[in-house]
């Protein structure tokens, strides 16, 4: 009987040999799809792969992870219950608190990680810990290889990241962040591009240096949050120059429709803006050019299902609920039916997209935000992205704002907004009218704190759109 390490290495080679992880790069620059065989696979073949890989990862976790064996036994679950990929809903939901409890009892990774592979991890990822103790993710050679493949698929195909392309990564470059240099830059090298690991969190302290890099290197593809994309474009206009970016990759939060319009105004050379949703753990969904708002999921890599957060039962088709994800090829530290906390619509498109013929499923709309970001004003359920769309309709604002949440059901929307204009009573009245009408509440119940550009709250390279002031 082979050891977990031997089986892990065998599976890694199998995935490479079968072409799911492409290794014959650099490839012909005229090639349209990075991995046509996988990206245009027939639906019935994708379903077979999902069934095989789901059964394999569940069996693997049961046999090799003490955490899953104990967790599933307490929930009355047995791997034999999974006969088909649709049986994923029979698997108990794993939430972040379950990981935190295990981690605190068995530091640093908890008992979830496969012991023999834990000694061979190549990269440690960690969540921000903004909602409590951070959770850690161990990546081995297989997981890194597959994630870089998944990155290359959209970078090459959607963003034209190819030889001679200059790509600037202005995501978080600090430790434990998987979308920084350890993974994304290596995906750049597969594509043959020049990668600049700028680091969005340092833009505020090294603004002049970063702006100089953009101009001197004539950056083609810029990857950061929608808010930092907007700020950089605004700064360039104030200084009297144009950013060279041709493609804007929007990470870290869904970009509202009006935000995209503003981005094209401040980045006049940009022809394409692509929303990229992802987590530090290695989940991802990417907007398909030509099918705006629809985010594709690489189904050979992960599976999603959506539940009612109050009952944990599957959400009905068309209803919104909590996003649950399963990584099919993470063996070092399996994440099976793991709650990501995002609030999404349970509706997907499986017809090939009209531009590339990609057969993997697509969300019908962007992922608007996390479940805990939902808030009520006058009984109306809202998310920051809805407010963002309205803020961008107010003249002379920078698009930067903070929503202050002071109660579970608020009487007023309390919001801080940046404006370049001297605020008058008329300006404030018109702004409250725009916000109220756009999001469906009485303008009299909108309270705006006006601040100058640069005075909203940020966390690193992310605008803190949701500021929780409720008593814990």
UniProtKB/TrEMBL annotation:
Pfam families: AMP-binding_C_2 (PF14535). Signal peptide: none annotated. InterPro entries: AMP-bd_C_sf, AMP-dep_Lig_C, ANL_N_sf. It comes from the Archaea. Residues 379-470 form the AMP-dependent ligase C-terminal domain. This is AMP-dependent ligase C-terminal domain-containing protein. It comes from Sulfuracidifex tepidarius.
